[in-house]
Amino acid sequence: MSETFRIAPEAQGTRLDKFLNAQRPDLSRSFLQTLIADGNIRVNDAPRKSNYAVKAGDTITLEIPPPASMTVRAEEIPLDVLYEDDALLAINKAAGMVVHPAAGHASGTLVNAVLSHAPDTVTGNAERPGIVHRLDRDTSGVMLIAKNDLALHELQRQFAAREIHKVYLALVNGIVKTPRGKIEAPLSRDPHDRKKIAIATMPHAREAVTVFHVLAQAEKYTLLRVEPETGRTHQIRVHLAFLKHPVVADSVYGKKRNDLGLVRQFLHAWRITFKHPLSHHEMTLTAPLPADLENALDQIGIAIGAL
After folding, report:
1. Catalytic residue among 17, 136, 138, 250
2. Alpha-carbon gap, residue 28 to 81, rounded angstroms
3. Which residue has the higher pLDDT, 29 or 146?
């Protein structure tokens, strides 16, 4: 896979590895440094070192060599299917389930389950067949999976064009005073912890926009309807923490301890609206709130029926 970046004047002077890490936060800085050392990243078609200070007008070419072949096995893992046809599978992903195999998660993933449920799903990346978007491991909710190439490419196009509307439910700490709002804060990999994302002010940080609406409030909590306009890693969690109202039980960006007995963050991909990749008919799919989150709302007297 090859990508090209052109350096804007405001980014001049940034280290090469740091610039690329901001553009591709899914790639660790150490991995990028390895690519640079191996000659897979070039500046103006010439090799450079990781500490090279980029200049306005530079053209950076990033080549990611194909990964070592990984055999992904089908595993009989139950799936909560919301919708299925010959082109599309939509599931309500359980909290705790990793989307695709990776280091430390070679099995037990959504992909392993999909290959058992729909063994003909071989489209796209061999290690991530049918996957067009992701949810964090401890975020539950609706996910779309393409079952053939036409569906894969069309859903990828819709996501890239921001034509897919996603709605999350998030219970946050504190009483949010404004009934609705928009958070516009660019994101980048946290320079002090590559596993985390942070609000960034550097010019090459990635745009991130999140809209929220207050649905209900009780005790010291607020239930929000959250609609991300962009799809950055950890976007909702980071933006709500930036608002000083972190997601309840978010141990990374908020407080691990909570009074509701939750062992994972209260964040649920509740609803998604998109066009069917083949018929192009508009569809809206809703993933019911799982029992742990419903129980948390019951404890503070927020009725699910009001959603």
Report:
1. 136
2. 33
3. 146
Q: What is the pLDDT of residues 46-74, one digit of tens each?
A: 999 999 999 999 999 999 876 555 567 88
Query: Catalytic site residue 136?
Result: yes
CATH of 2-63, one of 3.20.170.30, 3.30.70.1170, 3.10.290.10, 3.90.1150.10: 3.10.290.10
Do 29 and 189 contact (CB within 8 A), yes or no? yes
Q: Where are the domains of the chain?
A: 2-63, 81-161, 166-273+281-306
Same fold, 81-161 and 166-273+281-306: yes
User: In the chain, what percentage of residues exceed pLDDT 90?
Assistant: 66
pLDDT in tens, 186-219: 998 887 777 789 998 776 788 999 999 999 999 8
292: enclosing H helix or E strand: helix 291-300
Classify domain 166-273+281-306 at the CATH class level: alpha beta
